[in-house]
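Structure in, sequence out. Go:
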């Protein structure tokens, strides 16, 4: 092994999401208040030299299937001339819902690594690093392995993929000794996705632009949450297309929290901030509409996170959250519930060697 590093980054819930009209590029200006959650994605990057094949019997027996695969990958790199970061092995462990985790892992095993945000983040750091290690590695045949541990629901509006990217940026920065500062990591993060900077920043952040321009950060009291998972995900592009077809985009967006909402946030009264312009669109789906109606009938504040379908319900404390989660998970429109807290720390390096 040449080097390895592991990092983690938080998912998010949007306490506020205001959406403007689409611009000439089809994207929307946003005003968002992100609350980072304690469920974190972890990415471990390992760089190793391919195992050398030997002619003697003992060496041949000692080689594992993984080592042979690494040698084959290195050979492919040499033949194709592709850089090592274009040939990355990805494995994923899912820790969201025991009933479906293995099935989800099998689905992710078929994902093209080139489309994986964590792989793209590694590539961004490799291509933007002028460190001595990065330059040395470019001249070598390297086997790169990414291990992703997912705890954030996918296609759930909680930025699981963006958290993967944020964690990978931090891990790659360490493993490549790139020495990129926070400003540079945020710049690369914006190239990967609008939510990536918020996952890098953690805490509670106010964002403008396409949701990728962090304007300020707040440190606030701990909040307790129940996240209500649906049986099916929602496509963010499809939600926005439906939103645009209804011409719901705002002409003007806020640029900061009002004094009263800021006071509510600092006092831990997050439900007073709840505002999501995409919720009327996402909630047209029958199961989400029914779940929100059940919550409203019990006078429980709730908000769909981002483009959905995950519904966030604040709770008074940990005990109340667990009791509420146990009740809600019995509803037929609910696949599972998750209990967690917020805000969470910024993306961080967990270890390196």
């Amino acid at each position: 092994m040449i080097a390895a590093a592991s990092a983690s980054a938080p998912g998010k819930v949007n306490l506020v999401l205001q959406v403007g009209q689409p611009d000439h590029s089809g994207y929307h200006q946003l005003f968002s208040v992100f609350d980072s959650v304690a469920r974190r994605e972890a990415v471990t990057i390992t760089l190793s030299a391919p195992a050398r094949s030997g002619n003697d019997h003992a060496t041949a027996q000692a080689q594992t299937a993984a080592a042979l695969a690494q040698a084959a990958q290195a050979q492919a790199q040499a033949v194709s001339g592709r850089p090592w970061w274009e040939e990355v092995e990805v494995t994923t462990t899912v820790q969201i819902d025991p009933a479906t985790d293995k099935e989800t892992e099998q689905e992710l095993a078929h994902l093209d690594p080139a489309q994986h945000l964590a792989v793209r983040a590694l590539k961004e750091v490799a291509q933007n690093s002028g460190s001595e290690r990065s330059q040395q590695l470019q001249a070598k045949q390297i086997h790169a392995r990414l291990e992703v541990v997912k705890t954030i629901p996918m296609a759930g509006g909680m930025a699981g993929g963006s958290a993967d990217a944020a964690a990978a940026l931090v891990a790659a920065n360490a493993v490549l000794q790139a020495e990129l500062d926070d400003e540079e990591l945020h710049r690369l993060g914006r190239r990967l996705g609008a939510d990536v900077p918020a996952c890098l920043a953690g805490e509670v952040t106010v964002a403008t632009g396409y949701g990728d321009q962090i304007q300020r950060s707040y440190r606030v009291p701990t909040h307790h949450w129940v996240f209500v998972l649906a049986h099916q995900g929602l496509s963010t592009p499809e939600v926005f297309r439906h939103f645009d077809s209804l011409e719901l985009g705002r002409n003007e967006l806020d640029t900061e929290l009002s004094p009263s909402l800021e006071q509510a946030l600092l006092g831990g009264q997050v439900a007073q901030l709840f505002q999501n312009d995409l919720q009327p669109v996402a909630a047209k789906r029958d199961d989400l509409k029914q779940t929100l109606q059940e919550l409203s009938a019990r006078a429980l504040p709730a908000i769909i996170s981002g483009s959905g379908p995950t519904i966030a319900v604040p709770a008074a404390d940990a005990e109340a959250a667990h009791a509420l989660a146990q009740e809600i998970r019995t509803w037929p429109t609910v696949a599972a519930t998750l209990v967690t807290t917020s805000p969470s720390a910024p993306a961080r390096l967990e270890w390196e060697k």
